[in-house]
Amino acid sequence: MTTTTVIDSQTLQRDADGHLENMAEWNDQVAQALALEEGIPALTERHWLVINYMRKEFKEKGDAPSIRKMTKESGVDTKELYALFPKGPAKKAAKIAGLPKPKGCI
Amino acid sequence: MKKLVILGAGTAGTMMLNKLHNVLDKSEWQITIVDQHETHYYQPGFLFIPFDIYTRKDVIKPKRDFFPPGVSVVSAEIDRIEPGQNRVLLKNNVVLTYDYLIVATGAKINPEQTEGMKDGLWHKNIFDFYTIEGACALRRFFKHWEGGKLVVNITEMPIKCPVAPLEFVFLADSYFTEQGIRDKVDIHFVTPLPGAFTKPKASAILGDFLAKKNIRLTTEFSIARVDNEKKAIVSWDEIEIPFDVLVTIPTNMGDEAIGRSGMGDELNFIPTDKHTLRAQNYDNVFVIGDATDLPSSKAGSVAHFQADILMENFLSAVEGRNMTASFDGHANCFIESGFGKGILIDFNYDTEPLPGKFPLPGVGPFSLLEETKMNHYGKVMFRWMYWNFLLKGLELPVESNMTMAGKRM
User: Fold this and answer.
1) What DSSP string describes B297-335?
2) In Å, how far are A55, A102, B378, B385 from A106, measured between CA atoms?
3) Domain B2-106+255-318, CATH number (from 1.10.1040.10, 3.50.50.60, 3.10.450.330, 3.40.50.1820)
4) Of B203, B220, B191, B226, nearest to B119 (Cα)?
5) Does the domain formed by B111-251 have CATH 3.50.50.60?
6) Selection from B226, B314, B222, B241 nearest residue B19 by Cα
């Protein structure tokens, strides 16, 4: 089931879990709006470090990284990842980065 | 002579060995299986040990009972695989070369991955039930326990048999009721998932069962450490849940040998094609069961369904044909729900568990996503099927790929 959301007069297709259907529609404003939905009022430099890492990883591997991989490679430790993206860093950061739901999330 | 090496003689490796031994020409193929352990454990039975339903002897048999004659059995620890060289190095300095390799090295718990887990309270107030030692230690503990806070916590996904932790709390409810101390036991199920289970529809139904059985549920709790002094688990966002006894499902990882071989992901699971079951990076390596990184459940039933697919694709590959058999992620799980009843679920990559009848549409005898006595008997009977049919690679009356017949949308 897909839904649509309008952000900055741009109509976005979303999947059942709220992830963007089309990665190309993603930009900084979209990220900010998606973050707000997840209860993150403003994206800081540390958030962006993680988001950029997520997008780079997805481009190279075709899947969003797991929390373990994020801890190892993003430059942000687990504790801070949970502070930045409360409850589910892997899932939330992927969503805000405009990526599909990580395949490992079963 | 062509050489096939199978690494691991657990559920998946033993099944593959028996299936391929039956079909490969013995004048052309030499089959070798490697495993460091002598004893085969019926892992689904571990769940019943803490509640005194099974004992140790109900879940063990010698591995050699399941090896067909004419197969070379090597009892040694694997040091590493060198897939570029087509060889396996063993810890006893033996080197095995292969034309084809099947990796079935499984998954195991790694409590060391969580800070404080293996400090003072391990196997005193903190137990696992994914090892024979943990399950037996917990039985001894429960025998004399007078009640208090029982916390069951999943550390992180993926884990072997994702329904087992739920079965554990259902059985605990039943066990402590029979002991007459249910009112003194606070059962608390704590999971990193957003619900009781991984799949939404089943999650809602199983969540209702928890509520009905007066079992507390905390979701989206990701454990960071165990505070041994306070006897509490603490999440990454500093929420504390106190316990008198903690039953942990620790981080599950693939074998260390996979890590040493550089063939695994960050949890030592091997990137595997989810349909053909061939290793993503090596054409002559296949992977089966818990050792894969597939987004299917890590369970014996899944390995069983994979075995049929893998056999077809293996035969295609060695004969130079295209691999046409495709694994669909099929899983079939009997869930013990306590008081002599059980629930059955049947699902795959794309279709989540649905209600209905199984395996005969409209007839059953098993009911999907419903609590019945017959489902419990199915689970009890399964141990016999496991030892006598499944491990020997014999056919069961269930299709490898999931069928929609008998299911209600």
Assistant:
1) -BSHHHHHHHHHHHHHHHHHHHTT----------EEEEE
2) 21, 9, 26, 28
3) 3.50.50.60
4) B226
5) yes
6) B314
Main-chain dihedrals φ then ψ at residue A2, nearest 5 degrees:
-110, 155
Residues in chain B: 409
Can you read off the two tokens belonging to residue A23? 């990665």
Taking the Cβ of residue B237 and every Cβ of chain A, the question of whether any pair is shorter than 8 Å is answered with: yes
Show the CA angle centred on residue A39, arms to residues A35 and A43, nearest 5°: 40
pLDDT at B86: 98
Answer whether the bond into residue B359 is a cis peptide, omega within 30°: yes
Query: What digits encode the pLDDT tens for the residues B352-408?
Result: 999 999 998 888 899 999 999 999 999 999 999 999 999 999 877 788 889 888 888
| Cα(B79)–Cα(B56) distance, integer angstroms | 30
Tokens coding B13: 């490796």
Measured in angstroms, the CA of A8 and the nearest CA of chain B are apart by: 30
- Regarding beta strands B148-154 and B185-190, do their DSSP bridges make them parallel or antiparallel, or are they unpaired? parallel
CATH number of the domain to which A32 belongs: 1.10.10.370
Q: CB neighbours of B185 closer than 8 A, spacing ≥ 6?
A: B147, B148, B150, B172, B176
Total domains in chain A come to: 1
Question: Mind listing the pLDDT tens digit for each residue in B104-122?
Answer: 999 999 999 999 999 999 9
Complex ipTM above 0.85?
Answer: no
**A60 Cβ under 8 Å from any chain B Cβ:** no
Q: Which residue is it, tokens 């409850």?
A: A87
pLDDT score at A106: 46
Q: Do A87 and B266 touch (CB under 8 A)?
A: no
In DSSP terms, which residues pair with B366 in a beta bridge? Answer: B358
Active site annotation includes A44: no
